[in-house]
Amino acid sequence: MKKYINKWLIPICLLITISIELRDYLIKSEINTGFWAIVVVLIPWGLKGLEVNVSKYLELLSIIIAVLLVIW
């Protein structure tokens, strides 16, 4: 049981945080780029939790996008 909780924890948390941020965007019409940077960085780890093979290039690309979001 513990293995399944660990496997699905990050993807479910990412889905919840994305939906909350999209709801806030629709209400306030402003983007929290720091929050999106965290979400972008965690996407490869969420995919690994779903047992999807993630390349090093996708991990590097997500880190680059997150840094650009933090700078913006």
Order of helices and strands: HHH
Span between N and C termini?
Answer: 41 Å
Radius of gyration: 14 Å
The domain count comes to: 1
Layout of secondary structure:
Blueprint: H1 2-28, H2 33-49, H3 56-71
Helix pairs in contact: 1-2, 2-3
Structure commentary:
The chain is mainly α. The protein has one domain (2-71). It is 83% helix and 0% strand. It contains three helices and no strands. α1 packs antiparallel against α2 and α2 packs antiparallel against α3 (56-71).
Which descriptors apply to this entry?
0% strand; single chain; mainly alpha; 3 helices; 72 residues
Brief synopsis:
The chain has one domain.
